[in-house]
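ASSEMBLY PREDICTION REQUEST
Request ID: AP-0331
Submitted by: J.K., bench scientist
Number of chains: two
Total residues: 267
Priority: normal
Notes: Please return the full assembly, not individual chains.
Input sequences:
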Amino acid sequence: MRLATWNVNSIRSRVDRVAAWLERQDVDVLALQETKCKDDQFPEERFTALGYQVAHVGLNQWNGVALLSRVGLDDVQVGFPGQPTWSAKEGVEPAVEARAIGATCGGVRVWSLYVPNGRQLGDPHLDYKLAWLEALRVTAGEWLAQDAEAQVALVGDWNIAPQDDDVWDMSVFSHSTHVSPPERAAFRAVVEAGYTDVVRPHAPGPGVYTYWDYTQLRFPRREGMRIDFVLGSPALTRRVSGALIDRQERKGKGASDHAPVVVELGE
DNA sequence: ATGGTTGTGTAACAA
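STATUS: Completed
Returned structure:
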């Protein structure tokens, strides 16, 4: 089974590219982030025509996560237990954002996750991000406490570069989010709860990234960040036989600023 | 040059 994750930065502007890529890469399950649309705007028929079932949550033009699967899509869950809420502005009732959707696909509990962007050090968004990751760590840890053999994949855009090699130049990030000690500790806590980065051994750095900013010629200059991850539970990690970051897909007109990440699972 | 691009939706905001 081939499992993939991709921050597409708007599914409506990328639907042709995603559909073509799915067929080319022979992917069974694809987790999408930043679909940037409401549920009724999601181009579901494009994917059902290719044999995929679709689950999506999108509340407005921000965030939005989805799962496409051709190996079953059962027990869909919008948001994870304990997922923190966010209030966009003063006076607006805090709500759970469209940042997490889970389903069982071919025996694997797959979660498509879009971790909040912390924006700046000291920004309330960073506190939200850290609380979000801590809540995820607690819940995902409970899943393994209940069933140590559970096959769980926590996949998506984590908005964290866990190691210095995961950015092109650490000195550029000395006062930035994504690399700060609290963010790295929050990521490490998920790993220590039992979830392994299954891609890195198959796509080692330095210089291997999943995201390149649209501005400042970051992609041709090879100035990127590794911030998209597939974290596997122990039982899932044992099944991983290969992985790749499809850098080709970042090329050309109409590319997302993120590349897709693919994991091959054996029996 | 204190920005640089791309997305939402059509002014700003988000990344």
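REVIEWER COMMENTS: The first helix of chain A runs from residue 11 to 25.
SIGN-OFF: pending second reviewer
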